[in-house]
């Protein structure tokens, strides 16, 4: 195994286990978890676009990261954590049940992808469309874009 493969495996392992470490309900934890999901989605996008070769383990790791992080993510929005300079909209706390349901759907959709892991770049692209649709819908409602 070459050093690039080892480095990639270590990076993906860090992404996969990050939610356990970062889940403390702070703004920084939320940002860290979003970055984990974004990084995993970016890995999938690179495979779907063909800029990285298809790698079943990389796909599995990225989708697992999304599934696990989405489960833990809503718990980072406890009452009293809505203040501060954040991209998190106050609508999250006003509609916490919807927010939790959206995160659960993302996790469930990611688990469905895991159960029938895509076998090529086209399959990864199709899975990413579903997963990304969940992300985009939530961001539209619950994210304040900062310039």
From TrEMBL:
Pfam families: Cytochrom_C_2 (PF01322). The keyword Lipid biosynthesis does not apply. Residues 1-22 form the signal peptide. It comes from the Bacteria. InterPro entries: Cyt_c/b562 (IPR010980), Cyt_c_II (IPR002321), Cyt_c_prime (IPR012127), Cyt_c_prime_subgr (IPR015984). PROSITE patterns: CYTCII (PS51009). Keywords: Electron transport, Heme, Iron, Metal-binding, Signal, Transport. This is Cytochrome c. It comes from Rhizobium mesosinicum.
